[in-house]
Specification:
Four copies of one chain form a homotetramer. By secondary structure, chain A is an all-alpha fold. In chain A, 71% of the residues lie in helices and 0% in strands. Chain A has two domains: 3-128, Four Helix Bundle (Hemerythrin (Met), subunit A) (Up-down Bundle); 144-237, Helix Hairpins (Orthogonal Bundle). Chain A has twelve helices and no strands. The longest helix of chain A is centred in the first third of the chain and has 32 residues, at 46-77. At the C-D interface, helix 9, helix 10, helix 11 and helix 12 of C face helix 2, helix 6, helix 8, helix 9 and helix 10 of D.
């Protein structure tokens, strides 16, 4: 009995955020994740690494141990540990502590750095704390609803950059070293269509600049499409949430229009 | 009789995607097109071309033969072969196999490369497979409806870049080699207005930078116009497609919800 | 009488586009303007100017004489010549022919080039021909309605770039030659906020890159504002144009809602 | 009595803009602020500073004295001086005059320049004059309403650039000096995602260019989210402000038009 009480108490603190203790835990964890991410970032700067390398190393291990304890407590306090361990955040939690331990077994500069990079995924844990931010759900819902349309849009963009890229390879490839292969030209087309425009590769011939102009204006106008899609989905998902809270007394249909007088399903009069 | 059955069977497999065989055919074809496009792209990379040139050549001919058989089967199985052959995808299908055969007759490096580039149009065949993606139609419908508005917008953009381009030619042309002719200056104005900003040409004088600033802010604000147009068209086309065409027999109210059984205005039963 | 008939006939051809003759005149004029603009542009390219300078010169004078005759006919055929001469397109028409004549009196390379640039304004005449494109009016109406909001937005943008620009002057000015004065830094801030990003000036210090990141993300998010404004105005202006064509039989109020049964002004029943 | 009259008169002129005197005061002040900001900017240009440094200095002190008198008059004429002094514009007003006086005590080139930069905040006073621009409020209201959603969006962007940035550090860090630390790579990811694209740092390896392409297309599509959010908020805030709060006493229909006298649903008279 006592053990279950402890479990429940822990679950409330670690997984929920509606008690003062749970809220405090979440905020402290958020700060710890942020600090650990910042340390990984600073460690990659050669100057800081030389000067403070030892302190960074200690801080890293402190955070690793804290996150390991947290991970074990999560596994202990949850009712179905396997379901947590195989969930998205369960895997991210494990991946964020694993690299430190692996670095003890596998030496070597390069592989070590890969491991450090993976630890940045800890940042994703912030999302788990963001469940009090209901707003995120509205955005995700709108993006999910417009998933198919956005896929079609991205496929269209990819075809466009493939064709324009190979066209530019034919036009500029002979004289301009920036367009010396189709993949490189396609990369340039993506840089141009998305209006990023690095300028490391740019057309030199008049014909090339003419084609580039067409891609730019196309990219400038085409951006309207995903914007239009998401705006409409957001509008619809908001409108749906404004649906009347009335439900029919006879057929129990919910989702009546706010201006409905009679149930649109069974024809009975709705409550005033 | 037997021949017709074969024709119909073939048509079902090649042109339709609602039987398991038809679906399988479409997926296999999609993968073949993608592979063939990737091979054309990789072949253009000098290093790969040197090492694997022979294998690329073989793979190209294999795909060409497969697509040729497919094209002939399409011509055979369709009831009106001429209508297919002159349709958009019929022409694209032919163009995607022609270059390989033409390369046998006409030698020469440069013309050969043009032919390879054309083969990329095979990618468009993906669209033919995309008829199960109904979402694309909504986008195309919205773009078609806003065609006239977008044309006016693009004409306006072209006039703007012409005037700003020649203004910059006058301001910077004497001192800055990037603005040595009006067409080049217009190219720069397009690069700037669309917020691409390569940086290969950029104003040096104070007056030039001032005019550039105006173009940038204009371009930044003006992008709102195509976005507004497409968003509204998407909204309208969605609204129209989601409203039942039924009208109440008793109160004549139109705009009934698609799932309505009774008129939401007078409570009378709607037609089935 | 006869003179008036001629005047009216000319007016119909030159100013209107609803008769076959009027339509033909507009199309021919459109082509002439486009050709004359293209010649001005090509003339600015040094290579072409050397080779075909003489032919360009002749073509220019031909177009100037054609446009002069057109201008005089317009003045003759219109009922109130002064009103036309002082209208926007009247002034543009005059400005598009004046530079050629002025170049006879005032010599000098540079001033001559300014004159050539001004002739590009002829392009604006295309708009006069665009009155059959009703769509343009909807856009212009929406832009006019959102004028005040867009002004506030642009003022806000200008204040933002001033503050961020002078901040960057303090941060990077000592070490980075690109930020050697506040106006230059403000120019850079505009290049960055509008997501143009030439790269001719870019921050080098860590603090400078941090501030630049803030400007970029701000610029990326802030673009939503003009888009939102124009989208809504377009939506409203479209909605208004969908208002019922019914007017009340009793109080003559127009602009009834499409779903209204009773006049919202006097309470009388509307026609079905 | 007389003192109070003076106070009230002053308040009317300085703080309000609905009398001719008040309007004149605001316009003159606006011009003075603009001039003083322009002088600070021009002073930072080395050439102008050398030539006109003395005149700039005099003009600066003239403006400082004018703004000091204005600040004291504001404190005098307002009923609750402390509330004004601690308000946003009270603090900005003080900060815009303080630097000039502080420059008398603290010498030193660098610190002096910081002070000059702060004076640019005077520009914010323009907003105080913009209260006749009601339109600004609509934008601010829409932005405030979408604050939570925009925060979630920006956090998501920051996580995305952190992960992509460290990924690029691992991929390009060994060979490309532009990606020599994670913070620098994250800075590059921001430059790319926001479609600014300076080009001072750009990927060189094929894998790096592939990842960069993903970031660009993501950034190009993701911009739809803030736009969708703001567009919807503007739509809602406009709709709410344009719909009468009246509901029919007979049929309880809400959402009456603001100019309606009779209920458009049942024809009964609405309350005044």
């Amino acid at each position: 009995m006592k053990k279950n009480e402890l479990k429940e108490k822990l679950h409330e603190i670690i997984f929920e955020a509606d008690t003062p203790a749970g809220k405090l835990f979440d905020v402290v964890l958020l700060i710890a994740i942020l600090l650990s991410v910042i340390i990984v970032m600073l460690e990659s700067v050669p100057e800081y690494s030389k000067l403070y390398g030892r302190y960074f190393n200690i801080a890293e291990w402190v955070f690793t141990i804290i996150f390991t304890i947290e991970y074990l407590l999560r596994l202990y306090s949850v009712y179905k540990p396997m379901k947590y361990a195989t969930s998205f955040f369960g895997i991210v939690d494990l991946l964020s502590i694993l690299p430190s331990y692996l670095s003890l077994i596998f030496a070597g500069t390069h592989s070590l750095m890969v491991i450090r990079g993976l630890r940045l995924l800890r940042v994703f844990r912030i999302f788990k704390l963001a469940n009090f931010l209901n707003e995120g759900e509205v955005i995700v819902k709108a993006l999910k609803a417009s998933r198919a349309k956005i896929m079609v849009f991205i496929i269209f963009i990819l075809i466009m950059v493939s064709i324009f890229g190979s066209l530019m390879y034919l036009v500029e490839g002979q004289t301009n070293s920036g367009f010396d292969s189709i993949p490189r030209s396609v990369y340039w087309a993506i840089v141009t269509l998305t209006t990023v425009g690095y300028g490391d590769i740019s057309p030199q011939t008049t014909l090339g600049q003419f084609i580039a102009s067409i891609i730019m204006i196309a990219g400038y106008a085409v951006i309207a499409v995903p914007t239009g899609i998401v705006t409409n989905e957001l509008f619809v998902s908001k409108k749906n949430s404004k649906v009347s809270t009335q439900s029919c007394r006879y057929c129990s249909l919910e989702g009546q229009d706010p201006d409905a007088i009679y149930c649109k399903h069974c024809g009975e009069k709705l409550n005033d």
